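Tokens help. Our protein:
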Amino acid sequence: MNTYKEIKTEIKEKSLIIYLSRQEKMNTFTKNMQEEIVNALDAAEENDEIRSIIFTGDGKAFCAGADLSSGGDTFDSSKAVDKSVNAIRDSGGLLTLRLFKSTKPLIGAINGVAVGIGATMLLPMDVRICSNMARFGFVFTKRGIVPEAASSWFLPRLIGIENALKLCYSGKVISAEEAKDYKLVSEIVSGDNLIDRALEIAKEFTAESSQISIALTRQLLWRMLGADDPMEAHKIDSRAVFELGKSGEAMEGVMSFLEKRPPEFPGKISKDMPSFYPWWIEKEFE
């Protein structure tokens, strides 16, 4: 694995654990941190021994939002933007869109404060658990900006439009218990057990599952949240069942069931994804 400056990584029980690591700054988010996380994700995608990815914070905080050391100019990127380019992209959004594309389960293990981008980066993750010390805040209106990192797409889909507006309008920081009530997190565990529980969830997801099936399932379920009609799901899942049905994945899944033994799926994400993947970049699908 690479050596990073603002994150730390370790592989444990077939999971890559990514620690946001700027302890002296409460793990506040920078452009460099975003690039390092994306680099770690890209490397994990190529490593078939890594079956899931866990995010947590180094020290007491998860991520206390954007680094505000630039003062009032923190969110003013006008001087840095090439005016000839008809596109402005926030670094938080570049991260969440990359998380969205992941082929491996993503688990947030929130150990402390998670506000601003510290909260929105959690939204494309598949499961979020936290310690009782965790705090969450979508504080953008209090900073004179708007919800970023594509959170206006993710947040209402996770907790409903009314709850999303309540949290974003007020900008209030909520407790772990309130976050569970909002269904922002699914479990609250002690800080000492947070990573162990995340690893346990990862094992539940991946121990007896095809990594090819997981990758396709993750993309199907997330992407169909924005589909206009169930026909879109029918087209893609029909093609996926057809492709996997004639592959070693389905054969091993069936035979292991009939022979009452744990499966040993042959497929690897790095080289065995079906030919139609990624389907969403196709201009036309028939």
